[in-house]
Amino acid sequence: MSDGKNYWTQRRPDGNWESRREGGERASHIAPTQEQAWERTRDLARTSGGEAYLRGRNGQIRERNTYGKDPYPPKG
Prior knowledge:
Blueprint: E1 7-11, E2 17-21, E3 29-31, H1 34-48, E4 51-55, E5 61-66
Parallel strand pairs: 1-4
Antiparallel strand pairs: 1-2, 2-3, 4-5
């Protein structure tokens, strides 16, 4: 189950790009370019302290950014 902190950027059937909260039914933001949508997705994830995922045209994750506390910080 999603905690509502993670956001995805993905292509819509109409050709635009969307930022969507993980588990959400509607897009949080719609943009004409992948770059604009990805920027907004990172802002949303940064604010929530979650992760931002960029899904490419082929459906695979192209990029991933984590914000907030790292659950397993390295020692040293």
